Amino acid sequence: MADTALKTEEEKREYFDSPEELDQKCEMLANMILSSEHFVAFTGAGISTSTGIPDFRSGVNTVLPTGPGAWEKAATKTNKKPLIRTSIASAIPSPTHMALVELERAGFLKFLISQNVDGLHRKSGFPSKKLAELHGNTNLEVCGNPECKKQYLRDFRVRTAQEVHDHRTGRLCERCGNMLYDSIVNFGESLPKEDLNNGFKESAKADLCLVLGSSLRVTPAADMPLETVQNGGKLVIVNLQATPLDDIALKINGMIDDVMTKVMDKLELIIPPFSLIRRMKVVKTDRDLDGKKVNPSLLIRGIDEDVTPYSLFKSIEVTITSTKENFYKNKDPAFMTSKGDLKEGKVFLQIEFQGHYDEPAIAMDIDLSTLKMNQPKYFLMEFDPFSKKWLNIQETTLTE
């Protein structure tokens, strides 16, 4: 991955279409989406600036509320304060993030390629199997054993190393015991092979590639939209600054959320509001985390939509009525071995989350007679970050 920070004032300049021109271009984009057979989106840091996460290349005089980009601040040593600034952990996916979710649900968007490490696409609900995170995810760590490669999501920043090219997190893989590594790709490092291959494959198949908020200056990622054009597809770029591919694209100079709101309106699609989805696995088991035979036990852990382990809980308090046992665990996964057979009675759970969105604790109970040995139950919990209320807690179906 090459460092191609903007160097000149012309490269930092921001362009804006007139309202009439912007509307006309949004109409064109909507029609392209309607007629597409394999539509792919490609996103950069600009898609997340409206959430309060700064980009890299915006100049000192940018109109963006996040202010100058990280590289501009470092180069100019400006102390200009942003209008908004949010931590990645508590950022709420933008209208554009949610528009992409709806475009996929509606059957238009076939694949999403992202240069961002903020994890907002996965948090928005975009399916992980149709997503390539080329530069990693600040919440994702991966087993370094090439024969294992098990992934773990965390509701916190996984990177702990101080050296640029040291990616060890200090945690170990539950499956094989090998060291876990953060998934962030720094300059000079290779992109993850599967994401890289999927990105190029989907770009080559695409008859329409929509670039949102990328300067298209970091390779090899920036070569993917070009792959679409070289294979006969159309390219649309939404970005305030000029990009190297503007001459072969429909270039829309406007704020990304404004553009996508207009496009969704023309497609007669509603941008869904963001709600935070949490999932949990509860299983009665006779095996511990290492696979060794144990007395009847309960395993409770957070998971993602593809059943990837997801450390979500700050603590879990568990009370088993039949044995009058009480357990308190401040680690996810929570594993508890009982002195009973766990065949009857109830298990009461008090679940405390990491609290990035001020989620209150959840209290729930499960009838132990409904838990079959080594057959997990899955639960979905939906939280509204605006009203600060849990909207829905229900059993769900997932496939491991």
Short descriptors:
single chain; 400 residues; alpha/beta; Rossmann fold; Immunoglobulin-like; six-stranded parallel beta sheet; five-stranded mixed beta sheet; 29% strand; elongated
Notes on the structure:
- This protein is of the alpha/beta class.
- Helix content is 19%, strand content 29%.
- It has 2 domains: 9-138 and 184-266, TPP-binding domain (Rossmann fold), CATH 3.40.50; 276-396, YEATS domain (Immunoglobulin-like, Sandwich), CATH 2.60.40.1970.
- It is built from 8 helices and 20 strands.
- Strand 11 and strand 12 form a beta hairpin.
- Helix 6 runs parallel beside helix 7 (223-230).
- It starts with 8 loop residues before the first helix and ends with a strand.
- The model has no long low-confidence stretch (mean pLDDT 91).
Mean pLDDT: 91
- The CATH class of the largest domain turns out to be Alpha Beta
CATH topology of the largest domain: Rossmann fold
Q: Strand order across the biggest sheet? A: 3-2-1-8-9-10
The coarse overall form would be elongated
- CATH-defined architecture of the largest domain: 3-Layer(aba) Sandwich
Structural class: alpha/beta
Described by strand count, sense and barrel closure, the largest sheet is: 6 strands, parallel
The DSSP helix count reads 8
Helix content: 10-25%
- Total domain units: 2
What is the H-and-E element order? HHEHHEHEEEEEHEHEEHEEEEEEEEEE
- State Rg: 23 Å
- Estimated share of beta-strand residues: 25-35%
Q: Could you give the distance between the termini?
A: 34 Å
Write the CATH homologous superfamily of the largest domain.
TPP-binding domain
- Total strand count, please? 20
Low-confidence stretches: none
